[in-house]
Amino acid sequence: MRAALSLVWVAPERNEAGPPPPGGVRRSGNGHSQPSTILVIEDEILIRLATCDYLRHCGYRVIEGSTAEEAQRVLRAGEPVEILFSDIDLGAGMDGFALAAWVRQNYPAVRILLTSGVAAMAEHTAQLCDGPFLHKPYSHGALCGHIKRLLGLFGRTTG
What is the pTM of this model? Predict the structure, then answer.
């Protein structure tokens, strides 16, 4: 049996995260870094750990958090996120719908993929998602297919 421990660090709110890259221009929110960066926001820790571990195994750079506010801090810190993958029901605070609307307004180049175990949520995601809603429980293969399709919008398909 393999044990995995994932530590989550969320950058404090600030305008820059570290020194600027060569050329002096920081590209946040779809910076096309190598490998592709996926921001996973899921309040259920076991689901988050399994999903993030799988995506890392597929070669993606994964930043994870459990709240919409953590996602906002990551994006404001200038992380080059290409895809936001978020649950809709995140417990107390901002939900996945509000997070997706905020990302769409402030980081329009970031592709958004939402998920929920509540089927009725699917109809409300059309304006917020870049493609079909991902119903829980989802297979890792289905998630990977959605991510590859979204990265294809950037001309990329792999991590």
Answer: 0.68
